[in-house]
Write a structure and sequence with these properties.
By secondary structure, the chain is an all-alpha fold. It has three helices and no strands.
Length: 103
């Protein structure tokens, strides 16, 4: 086991503990929490003490990952508040395997 992997595990554990403490304190909004998690995951991806090489190379793949995560955040919050029109509905998604949907 090399020192770098021990350091990266410690860094990630500390970050996870700090994030959970903030969320449990009820001071942090859930959307801001997940936005911070997204930003921290991106930062960790480019931190050489945590990852030897980034999984998301370049701005295109990073922005795509951010868009997917933020789209999921939008849908999750809208499922509770139902203030806005959902982005994704079973009837506007492409058919893939003729699997029936329950919605």
């Amino acid at each position: 086991m090399n020192i770098g992997s021990v350091h990266s595990r410690t860094v990630l554990k500390n970050q996870a503990k700090d994030l959970l403490d903030q969320l449990k304190s009820k001071r942090m909004d859930a959307i801001l929490f997940w936005n911070f998690v997204t930003l921290q995951a991106c930062a960790n991806d480019y931190d050489t003490s945590i990852a030897s090489s980034p999984d998301l190379v370049g701005p295109t793949t990073t922005s795509r990952a951010f868009a997917i995560i933020h789209g999921a955040m939008y849908e999750a919050m809208n499922a509770f508040e139902q203030k806005y029109r959902p982005m994704f509905k079973p009837n506007n998604m492409p058919a893939t395997n003729n699997v029936p949907t329950r919605m």
